[in-house]
Amino acid sequence: MFVEKVKNNGTDYLRLVEGVRITNKDGYKTTHKKVILNIGPLKRFDDGQPDYVERLKKSFKAGNPLIPAILRYSAAGREIPLCHQRKQSGLLRPSKAVLPCTVGTHFGRIGIEYPLFFL
Asked: Phi/psi of residue 35, each to 5°?
């Protein structure tokens, strides 16, 4: 994910985007941007210094963004799911690590807690 500045009718806006790989109609894999969050007009957050956007990008990448609303999307604000922590530490075999990561993530999105005894 990254922060980018775009122009809309002559006004600069900030948005949080993510690169997504898709297959186009010809069968080639291409990269597109997926907008995660429209932050708002730049003039609402600008502190008057000319390099505000660059400082915002660096602070977001470091995990301490200048705009508090995007903290949960930064590296420091995201939590690593339990299944990924165990997979990284080598406690689970790859075949057993796939189910909790995929099913647990989908259950979490709809508000159902995935039972840990399946791990």
From this structure: -75, 120
Taking the C-alpha atoms of residue 47 and residue 41, their distance in angstroms, rounded to an integer, is 13
Phi, psi of 83, rounded to the nearest 5 degrees: -65, -35
- Its pTM surpasses 0.85: no
Per-residue pLDDT tens for 51-75? 999 999 999 988 888 998 888 888 7
Sheet of 11-23, strand order = 2-8, 11-23, 29-41
Per DSSP, the three-state class of 103 is helix
CB burial of 25-64 (b: ≥16 within 10 Å; e: otherwise) equals eeeeeeeeeeeebebeebeeeeeeeeebbeebbebbeeee
DSSP SS3 for 11? strand
Report the distance separating Cα 5 and Cα 12, nearest Å. Answer: 6
Q: Which residues pair with 31 in a beta bridge?
A: 21
Distance between CA atoms of residues 58 and 20, nearest Å: 21
Q: Which of 79, 39, 47, 83 shows the shortest CA–CA distance to 63?
A: 79
